[in-house]
């Protein structure tokens, strides 16, 4: 466990930086844990809306 000098969680996801907008609440999105598909730019969700959606899927 020596290759993490950030201290903490132990795994780090690659984050993609950009300038997008949430299709649901309109919030600015500057970082995503995946590379957004250009054809789905209009379906991007901010972290919060994404969490809500995931939660609603899991019932
Ligand atoms: Zn949102």
Describe the protein in words.
It is a single chain. This protein has one domain (16-57). With 59 residues, it is an alpha+beta fold. The protein contains one helix and two strands. The chain has one helix spanning 47-57; strands at residues 16-21, 28-32. The longest helix has 11 residues, at 47-57. The mean pLDDT is 85. The chain is globular and about 30 Å long. The structure holds zinc ion. The site of zinc ion (ZN) has 8 residues, from helix 1.
Count the beta strands. Answer: 2
Gyration radius, to the nearest Å? 14 Å
Arrangement of strands in the largest sheet: 1-2
Give the terminus-to-terminus CA distance. Answer: 36 Å
What's the average pLDDT? 85
Task: Estimate percent helicity.
Answer: 10-25%
Shape estimate: globular
Order of helices and strands: EEH
Domain module count: 1
Topology of helices and strands:
Elements: E1 16-21, E2 28-32, H1 47-57
Antiparallel strand pairs: 1-2
Bound molecules: zinc ion.
Task: Provide a short characterization of the protein structure.
With 59 residues, this protein is α+β, with helices and mostly antiparallel strands. 19% of the residues lie in helices and 19% in strands. Strand 1 and strand 2 form a beta hairpin.
């Amino acid at each position: 466990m020596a290759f993490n000098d950030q201290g903490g969680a132990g795994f780090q996801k690659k984050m993609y930086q950009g300038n997008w907008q949430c299709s649901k609440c309109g919030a600015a999105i500057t970082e995503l844990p995946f590379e957004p598909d250009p054809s789905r730019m209009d379906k991007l969700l901010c972290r919060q809306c994404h969490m809500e959606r995931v939660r609603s899927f899991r019932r």
